[in-house]
Amino acid sequence: MRQTTTARWLAATALAAGLAVLAPGLAQAQAKGAPAAAGAKEQFFPLLVYRTGPYAPNGVPFANGMADYYKMLNARDGGIGGVRLTMEECETGYATDRGVECYERLKGKGPTGSTAVHPLSTGITFALTDKVPNDKIPLITAGYGRSESANGEVFKWNFILGGSYWVAADILVQHVGSLEGGVDRLKGKKIALVYHDSPYGKEPIPLLQERAKMHGYQLILIPVTHPGVEQKAAWLQVRRDRPDYVFLWGWGVMNSTSVKEAIATGYPREKMYGVWWSGAEPDIVPAGDGGKGYNALTFMSPAGTGRVHQDILKNLHDKGQGSGPRDEVGQVLYNRGLASAAVTAEAVRVAQERYGKRPLTGEEVRWGFENLNVDEARIKQLGLEGMMQPISTSCRDHMGGNTAQVHTWDGKKWNVAPKVYQADMQILKPMQDAYAARYATEKKIQPRDCAKEAAN
Amino acid sequence: MLYRENGQFKTRYSDDQQIFPILQDRWLVMALIAFAFIGVPMLASEYMFRAILIPFVILSLAALGLNLLVGYCGQISLGSGAFMAVGAYIAYNAYTRVPGMPVIGAFLIGGAAALLVGIVFGIPSLRIRGLYLAVATLAAQFFCDWVFARIAWFTNYSASGSVSVPTLTVAGISIDTPQSKYLFCLAIATVMALAAKNIVRGHVGRSWMAIRDMDVAATVIGIRPVTAKLSAFAVSSFVIGVAGAMWAFVHLGSWEPLAFDVNRSLNLLFMIIIGGMGSIMGSFFGAAFIVVLPILLNQVPAWLGVPISTAMASHLEFMIFGALIVFFLIVEPHGLARLWSIGKEKLRLWPFPH
Q: Domain spanning B45-349 has what CATH number?
């Protein structure tokens, strides 16, 4: 009896002591990182992904798209300008504290530190926005994040390339306005916003309220608690209020649940419009045939394949080195990850033209991001023809593009409507500047003087 | 041999009643505190500070607060995340709405608000016990989740529901480097841990333990359950509220209501279960275990050279985490603190077996 107790005590203590000894040693080793040879020509990319949790259905294809593009550049071109690309994934589970921990762990890796970080989460973006100015790593939030970070004078290190949530909301209002025969005809109509109850879902509300004041439609706000599997109450409210249009601002399993609930309560899917993060295959396929007619925005690479996909299939998937399954290549979110990676690689290339073909620091790549000019010709060269809108950034404008299209699900695939909408910057720019100024006073940041910097 | 009390005679009552009566204990604890305040800032890397030490210090304070309620008073609470949220948001409002409010003042106001909320949600404990009380405190958790997501006043009418604080300054010193943040949190945690230890050694703590062990007998001998239980909720919520304010201001900097959801409550509960309920030291052990273990599990595959996808590593983390909790509960239900106590007892006799 006594020996059993002692034996158990010894076992437990040995385990506890072992963990205690290992822990600091490992953490220390990890913190110092795999020491890259000082002269190694490598550019390190941290990949903050979520392959587990309720947001994984959407996080996985995006992560695969990004990783595949970088790997393809290594395989096909030997990197960018002769500098090989290295990358490491870190699981965030869409949680802010894990995202911050991943960022801290990976920010110093590689000969020059992290090149750029794509958190793919508005929550993590908010937390990292405070940290990146100290660490000097560009924070790329292509199509998500704080809408006011388009203002490059206050947000020097944030790049919300391609569009923000205010752009998305604005374009949706323009589109439904055009369906009614003009935005003035929206007077008296009801638009419901079914949104994820988080900073991501709440972002479009200021713009929708602004537009409601301008055009006279009634905005009904229906929040859905994370993770969004429980939506019966929300859709009963939709059924009761009978809005003319429903804008869906969900992510992860919330999207497919929303469509299924819409089918259950009989709300016509043709009147549903999802933001570009609510318009991908994992969101609509689980709803089956009932999902036909559902519309969503697409801003950076709708579904489809181009020359770059052939390169990826040839160099990676044919050799068994693809990051994900082969039939994922060409899906909406895969393409979006791919386009984000393409724009990042383009920024590195632009920075290399100024600073030399060597591993670059975050600060140098930031300059590249601020002087992007991905026009139609360059898009064609990259192999993304017809799949991306041009992006052109500057010191003041860290968004670089504000266009989107609407695509509709026909049961088997997405059909992109040809009309390209552009957000109304007359409304957006004052709002962006006002919110950015508020952030600057709150954080006691001195906004940059773009004119002075351009003169230097 | 090493740990003998030979020659240590106490001549005053105060010497006999001190927290560490054995000289070796006092030396060890002093050395530990000196190492924590002086040695660690010199040795640790920035990653260690940001990812391990600062979360460890803050969460051990929160676990300490929960231990006062669950371990010492026996009232199971699943609402600790809510109390952290109350502390954080009220401290934020005090800091931003009142011009010239010092950081410590904001923390104390946050703690006081959490204290009041804790008393309100502690009232069910006067009628219900055990599992049912756990459910009632879970209601506190969800209620506070709802309040901070829906009532815009608390987030200063921020459109996104996310709030952030500018860089903190305490007594003219700016708390912006990892070392200063760590030392700031450590100072607050040390003071509050000392206060908590003294509370549980006094008559208030003893009344809590009496309620925990046998509340009917405690009532019979004259301990008022209302006073004991509500004071436990009050003190515990104050400590958790201050810890929540520290978590938000110092560690996160910018947060949304999801940062204090039910997962945080469960995390704190696991910390005290593994660390040792009814033990101040146990809170620290449990916090260290839970802060370090996921990071460790994420990196062991890479360290061993076995290539695993991040998804598999994350799943493995959950599985191993759960298995370790079950292992500790079977082998040592009183937690790591009990292992430590048994170790000390054996050390007092070493090298003799008995």
A: 1.10.3470
